[in-house]
Amino acid sequence: MPKRILIAGFKHETNTFSRLPTDLASYRDRILYRRAEVPARLAGTRSEVAAFLDAATRHGWQVVTPVVADATPSGKVTEETYRVIAGEILAAAANEGPFDGVLLNLHGAMVAEHTDDGEGTLLAALREVLGPDVPIAATLDLHANVTERMAECADILVSYRTYPHIDQYEVAAEAAALLARTLAGEIRPHTQVTRGRMLDGVDHGRTSAPGPMLEVQAAAARLQAANPGILSVSINAGFPSADIRDCGPSVVIVGDGDDPSYAAAARALVGEIWERRHQHTVTSIGSREAIARLRERRCGAKPTVLADFADNPGGGGYGDATGLLAALIAADLPRTVFATIYDPTAAALCHAAGEGAQLQLLLGGAIDPAYGPPLAVTGQVQRLTDGRFALDGPMSKGVAVDMGPSAVLQVGNVAVVIASRRFQALDTQFFRHAGIEPGEQEVVAVKSAQHFRAAFAPLASEVLVVDDGGGLTSDNYRRFEYRNVRRPIYPLDLE
Ligand SMILES: [Zn+2]
User: Fold this and answer.
1) How far, in Å, CA of 231 to CA of 222, rounded?
2) Interval between CA 32 and ligand 1 midpoint (Å)
3) What is the whole-number distance in angstroms between the Cα of residue 34 and the centre of ligand 1?
């Protein structure tokens, strides 16, 4: 008899300071695949689910794929939306078994209206349906806020080890391989989590330059090499924009059986994170300084890439803050491109006017004008698109994006890509699908904090991270009112 495996995904990184609720439309805007659509849309990509499917083929598993859902980071997931998607996973677990094992693609920082621990609540419900003996393996984002309940209810938790997240496939393959060994009776995995008194740490998890994350990961690798019973170690940077009790960096160890030495090892690694709490590999600058640096650019050099750090939709930023865009339009430097500003109304106006039309409109600043008011611009519609393309890597290569009706508006020297849906511009296709070759520009600006480096750093002469101190994803945490996180905590209370 082939083993029967439940494969599903339910992801969200919830920024509890966002005023945008996360509903079913938010999932439809990004990924909401059901049943046969799951392999049809994700097999052959660099996604976690593709790795699960490949493992199933390799091991001859029979799979059931009720739903895979992912939404761009935003506010709390509505209770109704949570119950719909989690309900589909739980119904499949209850009615389409018996199952030998489960592979879940989660994030680990989901907050819903009715629970601060979205993944822990799902895993507990799944455990209740399946009973204690069916092994559950799940992948997490490196920005997971891992809870004790998640560790208790899952047998195997493995997080990405890269930021930009370019190892989603590999991490899922690791989780699936551990599940296969469990099913073969080779191992009895036991997962535990340990965290410290930190809201933020390991340089947000960046692995693009030598720094604290790579150092702590190296310590974890040494630990694993010295302990054959340790099957997997994940260093989680946590997601600090979630005001929940268990927010912050953590260490997850999957051991073969439980052994008190694993918890001691995890505490030692948390100590390594604490010791490096002041270390950062990136220093942001204000837009005024960024423009001054752009004016000094050497003519003919490869593009300078600017990251709009404080309004990164990948961390819950609204994607319509206008601060950096306004500065670039005012500077009017040659061959400048910007992706993307989220503004469905402006995109619709461009589509109504048609390619070549001149028009005046207000751009962005609609969701919270405190992060930059709507920007009055006059420009020409250069290009209209349906906003659809496949990411071409290195991150999530092959995964489809649908930004909805989109447009390139040329404002002076600045070409602005306007989108009808919120996305982090982490891939060159955000420009290329609209006929803009980023490598041929002088200035390339993207709403992204770190993921853009995977695709854009190879094209760049220089990367500037811009943060004027505003924006929902600025890392000045003292600007936000935390009520639920455990206290005292670094950097809010503790030095
Ligand atoms: Zn992440």
Assistant:
1) 13
2) 19
3) 24
User: What is the side-by-side order of every strand in the sheet holding 230-236?
Assistant: 189-195, 250-256, 230-236
Domain ranges (residues) in the chain: 4-275, 287-477
Q: Where are the beta strands (DSSP E) in 53-198?
A: 62-64, 67-70, 101-106, 136-140, 156-159, 189-195
Expressed in angstroms and rounded, the spacing between residue 134 Cα and the centre of ligand 1 is 28
Mutual angle of helices 79-95 and 118-130, in 10-degree steps: 20
Give the Å distance between the CA of 453 and the centre of ligand 1.
14
pLDDT > 70: percent of the chain: 100
Output the pTM of the full model: 0.97
Centre of ligand 1 from the C-alpha of residue 143, in Å: 5
Residue 408's pLDDT band, with cuts at 50, 70 and 90, is: very high
Local confidence band at 475 (pLDDT 50, 70, 90 cut-offs): confident
Element (H, E) at 449: none
Q: Which of 322, 230, 381 is nearest to 219 (CA)?
A: 230
Contact 449, 312 (CB under 8 A): yes
Average pLDDT over residues 370-391: 95
Q: Where does the pLDDT of residue 220 fall: very low under 50, low under 70, confident under 90, or very high at 90 and above?
A: very high
Domain range 4-275, CATH class: alpha beta
Number of H helices, E strands in the chain: 14, 20
* Rounded-to-integer distance, Cα 317 and Cα 332, Å: 25
Average pLDDT across the chain, whole number: 97
Q: Rounded to whole angstroms, how far apart are CA atoms 299 and 236?
A: 41
| Spacing, Cα 142 to ligand 1 middle (Å) | 5
Residue 164 Cα, ligand 1 centroid: separation in angstroms? 8
